[in-house]
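Hi V.,

Quick status before I head out on leave. The structure for the redesign project is tokenized and pasted below; the design run finished overnight.
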């Protein structure tokens, strides 16, 4: 009992001493604990990346440098900012402390002496300070970039009065990019945002804060799993967080290699589409299985059924033929179904063969199991984009690829044009008049009525590639 009393008595004395110190501190230094706690709680709700003192994580230096070429690295050391414009995309990197005004999307770098001959990527404003304006979208087509919110790098004036205050300090770097103008089209979403985002941010191992200009909440919700896999923090919407945020380094823009592709020899080096598919498999918890091994059940074929243009006019006949070959056919018609990636990715992973006319739905090949087969039906006049956008990428993903080229008699354009008309006989001459003229004709006005007998040969080959035979063969 004595011992127990001593413990209680000792604790009481300590509590009394602490209370005295607390009261002395609050009275002497006008410290309001209630307001302090409220401010702290409010700020913590805003974002977990903010800290009292931002400390740059040194192991991220190599991640920054991986985005630049050797001559870019020299520029980075000289002026603290470097931009790489290889393969058409523009990515700007700084490892210096920056202040990002999310209201104007201006990024302020510390003042430092500028070299007499600045890098050609930069311009000089009226004050003689180096600036860089970048529209952070990976596919640098002029007509697209016009709709992208610009981000500007500026030197902060040394005599700024009052000095620009940091509302929040972050201990990880910022990566600024745009959701673009094609949100809702899965090809453009993967091609210009998701794959480039993976390329640009992967080496930071989730220790990076995404800032999304042109913020699209539907797009963010759709790819939330991917964002969560690439960053430990919620995507920041500049429109709803109008503050000055301070970071120990930033990247603006995303690396782009090629259509639905990653080139391991291009900056940042060492990545591949095989690794990207593995990343998707882990992100969406997809089973790892080889399409050609599962012989205990009928092979599953996923048919992408377009509802507007490039429709299969005799789709029922196609399905009957495929089922006759032994396929279990799953027809997907709803874009809403395909936009639920959590569910749809798992459906795609169970399929041995993916069939579709040239179009965005073929982008779902990124979810296929290794060694599955992609069959692209190539409409009249669309041989080049079919090969570049989907055919070549399928091979780089480790998939087997077949294409079925539509003949003039299988195109609905034959209903309106004679066989000798350039629209039928020379599609190249139509595209030569302008991309949008060709697009309107071959992408927007064309449907397909397949020659079932000829197409059947392609499907028999698909069966062979996954190690199966037709019912008649067995």
């Amino acid at each position: 009992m004595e011992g127990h009393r001593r413990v209680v008595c000792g604790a009481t004395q300590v509590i009394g001493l602490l209370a005295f110190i607390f009261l002395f501190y609050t009275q002497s230094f006008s410290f309001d604990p209630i307001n302090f706690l409220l401010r702290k709680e409010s700020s913590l709700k805003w974002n977990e990346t903010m800290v009292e003192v931002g400390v740059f994580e040194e192991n991220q230096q190599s991640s920054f440098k991986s985005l630049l070429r050797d001559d870019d690295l020299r520029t980075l050391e000289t002026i603290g900012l470097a931009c790489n414009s290889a393969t058409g995309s523009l990515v700007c990197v700084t490892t210096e402390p920056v202040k990002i005004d999310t209201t104007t999307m201006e990024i302020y770098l510390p003042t430092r002496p500028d070299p007499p001959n600045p890098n050609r990527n930069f311009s000089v404003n009226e004050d003689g300070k180096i600036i860089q304006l970048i529209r952070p979208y990976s596919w640098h087509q002029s007509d697209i970039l016009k709709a992208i919110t610009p981000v500007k790098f500026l030197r902060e004036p040394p005599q700024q009065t009052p000095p620009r205050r940091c509302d929040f300090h972050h201990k990880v770097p910022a990566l600024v990019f745009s959701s673009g103008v094609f949100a809702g089209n899965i090809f453009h979403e993967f091609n210009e945002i998701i794959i480039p985002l993976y390329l640009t941010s992967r080496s930071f191992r989730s220790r990076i804060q995404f800032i999304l200009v042109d913020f699209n909440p539907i797009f963010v919700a759709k790819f939330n799993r991917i964002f969560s896999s690439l960053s430990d923090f919620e995507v920041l919407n500049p429109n709803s967080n109008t503050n000055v945020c301070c970071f120990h380094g930033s990247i603006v823009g995303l690396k782009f290699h090629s259509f639905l592709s990653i080139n391991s020899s291009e900056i940042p080096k060492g990545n591949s589409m095989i690794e990207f598919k593995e990343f998707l498999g882990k992100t969406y918890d997809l089973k790892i299985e080889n399409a050609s091994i599962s012989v205990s059940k009928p092979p599953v074929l996923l048919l992408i059924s377009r509802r507007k243009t490039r429709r299969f006019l005799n789709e029922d006949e196609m399905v009957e033929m495929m089922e006759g070959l032994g396929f279990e056919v799953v027809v997907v018609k709803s874009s809403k179904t395909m936009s639920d990636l959590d569910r749809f990715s798992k459906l795609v992973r169970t399929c041995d063969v993916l069939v579709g006319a040239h179009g965005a739905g073929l982008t779902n090949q990124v979810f296929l199991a290794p060694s599955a087969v992609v069959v692209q039906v190539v409409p009249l006049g669309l041989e080049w984009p079919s090969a570049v956008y989907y055919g070549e990428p399928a091979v780089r993903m480790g998939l087997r690829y077949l294409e079925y080229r539509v003949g003039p008699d299988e195109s609905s354009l034959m209903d309106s044009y004679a066989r000798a008309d350039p629209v039928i006989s020379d599609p190249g001459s139509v595209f030569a008049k302008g991309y949008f003229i060709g697009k309107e004709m071959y992408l927007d006005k064309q449907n397909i009525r397949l020659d079932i007998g000829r197409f059947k040969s392609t499907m028999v080959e698909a069966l062979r590639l996954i190690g199966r035979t037709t019912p008649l063969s067995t």
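Above is the designed sequence. Residues 1-17, 20-55, 116-120 have pLDDT under 50 and may be disordered.

G. will cover questions while I'm gone.

Best,
W.
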